[in-house]
Structures
1.
Amino acid sequence: MTGYQTGRQTGSQSSSGLLDRHIAFLEALRAAGLSVSLAEDLDAVAALSAVQWGSRQTVQAAYAATLVKKQSQRPTFDALFDLWFPRMVGSGAGAAGTGAAEATGDGPDAAGQEFSVRDGADALRDFRERLAEALAADDQQALADLAAEMVATFGAMPGRGPGLSSWSAYTALQRVSPGELVDQLVAGLLAEGRTDEEAERTAGRRIGAFTHRVEDDARRRIAEEKGPEHVANVALRPSIDRLDFLSARRSDLEEMRREIYPLARRLATRLTKEHHAQRRGPLDFRRTVRASVSTGGVPLTTHHKPKRPHRTELVVLCDVSGSVANFAQFTLLLVFALRDHFQKVRAFTFIDHVHEVTHHFKPGADVVDVMTDLAASTSHAALWGRTNYGRAITKLAENHADALGPKSSLLVLGDARSNYSDLALDTLSELVGGIRHAWWLNPEHRRHWDNGDSAASRYGAVVPMVECRNLTQLGEFVHDIL
Amino acid sequence: MTTADWFSSPDDATERLAATGYLADPATATTAYLAGALEKPLLVEGPAGVGKTELAKAVARASGAELVRLQCYEGLDEARALYEWNYKKQLLRIQATQATGDAATWDETHDDIFTDEFLLTRPLLTAIRREEPTVLLIDEVDKTDVEVEGLLLEVLSDFQVTIPELGTVAAVRRPFVVLTSNATRELSEAVKRRCLYLHLDYPDAEREREIVSSQVPDLEERVAGQLVTTVARLRELELKKAPSIAESVDWARTLIALEIRDLDDKAIADTLGVVLKHASDHDRAVRELRLRR
């Protein structure tokens, strides 16, 4: 087999450190949660020996084709690839060309003094002009070079000796503050004929992407100094389906929202398949015997009663206060995307007062509109604005008793932090006693339950409580209750 | 076993694919080259309409190979994917033997009716037995049941099929295998492990303009630019289904058919139905891009 042969060939070159780096890279991928098997390792080596190493892009494509088998893992792979196979070393060979205007010598050994000279007000103004140009043109190559230059010039933290100097993306970003270029960028985009919101969104995205580049470049520099293993743990963010709802940034939330429909579709496919597999109901004795007459009384084929599909009537009660609001919105969106699998879905939001939001989820409605409507209706759910689970539960029992019949199931979403108020445990257990099922999804890590004002275990005693921190857990849960 | 030379280098792949009208980006070209060089199946994932199936066809055209296609669907089974015994013909054969009167022994008849003559080959077996260069396209593999994946394992890793009555049929010449998936279902680790993986996404503006221009040469350069910019703007919106390359090309054809020379707001609003297929997406685009004021 070709894989083993090439594996041996590369083995003999291990003195160059290439194999060591390859192994270390694979180890890092495994540590980051990619399941890279030995077979894929050998494939990667075979792929590398089949391509030219002249272009970094080709090497990356070869590694990606053999090692990454899920698109959601691609960002993790790219981040690690950047660390182990950096785009350039130091300020790169091209730095002399791009920075020739204001810089003379630029050796990494003479770093300290060089940077303090270059980092002046003039340099800053000049740099910001060039950055604004590149951002307006959305020139990826220029932006990558500028990010490297920015870290080198404005993010250097000279150390006392060789190997002690470091780079800080934070310092660089503070100095240059690309965020202030937004207005300029928006004006440019408007001139191109974009609408207001669109221009703002595009500008925000470009600036965000550039900030990421700067952070990546600082990491590359640190990795160069201290070894990639040192940085790998800090550098990685969990992939989007494993990212905690509570620690998501705004850009992550947008990405998560895009994931909702594909997730719902995957779940629906899986459910339909599973339901088909178990479509055969109990034996229809009468039909089987009747059919057996034609084969002389031997029941060659058995007939079965069709299975009656069971559909849940779901009532969702969600806490929409502050930090857990995102989690509630995601769950609501997912539940409504899967509404075909439920008999009926009703949704209520609360902070300290219960408000019904079912009408916002029209079939085929636009996700963004629904989100906006939900956000707007939050004000109806609050009288005083302090989360009060006890009051919400009491109000639900008083005002919406019709929603909770013996056929319905209750799904509570929230962190069970009730500001030390009355928990209304009796009302809740009464409610739960009269319905089919009840679950509680808590977006907090299990270790935070019962800290501070969390009443997780006390509510958990009445309603089974499940930890649900990311899209994967959410998908699993929704699949199980259907 | 003879090994076919599919592409000699990533650049060669880019050139030869481009000659057939498929403009591949560097990652696609590299992966296509690797799939040929390592003789491994290639699993292509991505949203609908970005040219997954087209890639397989382009590889076939570029290398002068024949395309054997297996379209997957729920309920696909061995008999439709691999092979089937032509039992009607077998029955005829047995009856014919009986009619002529020579009492053939059981063994003879048995050996006789399980031969090549009575075998109906389905796409997977066809692709393996072909001696000429072959591209095997297993389309929408995520639509099948999990059992079919098990069936694919033997074909994908060893390029052989075991038929109990005939023995193992090994590939004379390894086909270039392309599997496509829309990721409605997570494929099993076992299948993924045997494949090279490629995620195709929407192309950048420059490449998309090239694709549109090459597919619809009649379109003016300026209108093509406007079209690609508009499609890029649409993709930035949060839509249920973002327009894909196939839809950009359709749009370009629509503009030619309607003889629209300038893609202004009115023209966009009038023809938006070609690219957006949901009513809510349509409303959203009109509102966000301020098409009707």
2.
Amino acid sequence: MPLSKANLSVGDQHSEQVVDNLTRTQIIQYAGASGDYNPLHTDEIFTTQVAGYPTVFAHGMLSMGLTGKMLTNYVGDGRLTNYGVRFVSQVWPGDSLTATATVEGIREEDGVNLVDLSVSTVNQDGAEVVKGTATARIDD
Amino acid sequence: MATDHFPIEAGHIMLFARSIGDDNPIYHDADAAAGTEPGHVIPPPTFVQASAQFTDGYSLRPVVGEPWFGSGKEPTGVKRESSGGSGGTGFHAEQHYEYHAPIQPGDVLKAVDKPGNSWSREGRRGGTLQFNESITEYYNQDGVLVVTARSVGVQTSRVVE
């Protein structure tokens, strides 16, 4: 259900766990679907022995996609007008992520009601992995 | 990622939605999607990144007959670049989308790259950080701008601790 201006206030929050115990298999699914086959995300031997990381890690865009799931569940299908993030920390296999949107503003532009959101996704230790903003069309 | 031909396919959208753990029927069930506000299957908000699948020469996709830098018999299939030997890595630093018009299966998008800014700074964990921005505009088969993407990449000078 889309959001409506009448029922929204600055400071309102919506939070969802978007992945529980991220698996290497899900990272591989994302590589296959997105077309980003960088072995840093899927190839343990390359990542540990050549690149020097402790294990493979998720594509930033997987974290953004997981966070986007929370957003579309909150604002409704096809309602986003803007969505942008900064990748703050790496996401590793085994991580569980919780994404939160906070209402920062409600406004009207060219006769369209919009909500501006801040977005933050944290891992199971409370460390932020994705930070961003989004804007969505809302009803009256 | 520029491409002249990015076909929006229902199966591709379904696989992409699965990969982000999103079982919303609007991404895989045309009948259910018909009853939603958009009225048709739509892709998730980050889907246009998958235009990489249709970008000629995309560097993060193996090419038939050419060595691949991931592991096979050896940990990597290519010799390390002498210029990048200190463990630095390219990362995606930021990604931003503006959504202008709906996308649905059957559309064929064209993605046009535009140059962005470049800058550098000293980082705490990865040495000197070199940032490069790129802007990609996605147009549909009717020439309508549907999505603008702005990506910022960062090159670290050593392994991020």
3.
Amino acid sequence: MSCPELASIYAYLEDELSAEDRRQLEEHLKTCPACRRLLADRRIFLEASSSLPELELPPGFSRRVMTCLPPLKSPFRLWLWLAGGAYLLFSLVVIGLALGTRTSLFPVCLQIFKSLYNLAADLSSLIIGLSQQAYGLIKALRILVGVVAGLLIDVFPAGSLGLAALVLGGALSLVLLWPLLRSVNYLTGDKK
Amino acid sequence: MVPDEDKDLVRRSLRGDRQAFELLVTKYQQPLFNYFGRLVQERELSQDFTQEVFLRAYAALHTYKEKYQFSTWLFRIASNLLIDHWRKKKLSLVSIDAEVDSEDHRPLQLPDYEPPVSEAYEKRELMEKIELAISRLPEALRELFVLRHMNDFSYEEIAAIKRLPVGTVKNRVFQARELLRSRLEER
């Protein structure tokens, strides 16, 4: 075996070599004083690098951190409270109505029930209205694209249109991918 | 570091147990301070950064996923904070993916001859020289060297913190060591 790469010497010292590579390197070391000297040198260097003293933190540092902590965030907790609250209110209303007209709670429960019903109906109308508007917008866009395409076909020959579509598609893809590529090409590789 | 213990402490912290989070602070304050101390080289700033990491971690604790080690998650926050700091200071930041300057680039093959630094210095003196030489490493290499040698992270853990392939991390740590070691030869 010829002299190993320096990286293999480090890998040996850090127990990162396979059993076979380790055995081969140990065989080589028996006959190569230069590698033995290099191994001893890197061993001392690694040991010294890993035994640097700890830096001294001021006493009571963790207490200082604890006094500065922000409120604990949990995005799910608010939704849980809202959903739980709504369920409880609805249950109370249903119980109030189930007790019958003789109780004094009945008119209040009926009023709340009506309000809840109206709220649900309004929300439904809003959602349906928004969906209809979105559908209308898509239809209008489709017509617009059709008109523009018709105009382009009249002006340009079919071959150049294909090329233009290719260039436009490529440019659009780049625009869409750019934020992704940019965020990955960061020192940490983290997506911001 | 016991990962399962950390996960239990995170769960308790999320239930509002501040004492559990204080245990995490106590456990990781020294490793984080060592990390920032060697990379920022300013004591007060290192303290502020260490504190900031815990504040950010607490604020984002609900986003922590248990499939990751808490320590790597915490050091990822630390690493991002550090990079923001370096960016703001507009230091000559060496990209982790870029090659180190050609004059600093060390060959992967064995050198024909090199003076053994272990013979030139006593261990204490060698450690002092290493401490000084760390501050002269390019930032990106210094960070990997510190994560490996001061924080005792495995290559896999460093790869998880930096979101880099393990092979790249090994190569960069190797470069950092040889660059640092070559500077020890400059007496």
